[in-house]
Amino acid sequence: MTENPGTENPEFVLDRNFKASRPMVWRAWTDPDLITRWYGPGVDTIVHKFDFRPGGQWLGEMRWGENSQYSVSIFQEIEEPEKLVWDQSSSDAEWNIIANPMMTDWPRIVRTIVTFRDQGPETFVRLTWVPHDATDAEKACFAGAVENMGKGWESGFTIMDEILSELQGSDS
Length: 172
Fold this sequence. Notes:
Blueprint: E1 12-18, H1 22-30, H2 32-38, E2 44-50, E3 57-64, E4 67-79, E5 83-91, E6 110-119, E7 122-131, H3 136-171
Antiparallel strand pairs: 1-7, 2-3, 3-4, 4-5, 5-6, 6-7
């Protein structure tokens, strides 16, 4: 997890090795049925739409108790099985882009870049998050949150480890 001081935009980077083949790890990132299991640990993740193509939308909801947080993601690049890029924004329940209701200075658009590389029998994944077309206030809010961003992702990745283990067992 780093903030890149060489750019105007703060950057969150998380590197992780998964004990599974790249096609299997790619599937965990691109199959909506698997995404709902690991994305947003500790909440119910609902994929309302998953149009997996450049320009396609991923409409997601994270629900806990009586509360929900909605997001709209637009796929920018898909290079199977090497790279995924999407722009993610908070939305209301009708999928209109809004300021994040929990952090009003959170960037309206966060670009997510995920790269996948073979590393022997494992897969090396690099997740990069960066504010996109952000104001100075949004960049400052993001930079202030960088230090704690890894906790949620790591919790999700731990669940993904279990899913990948299950998938490997079912492929035997």
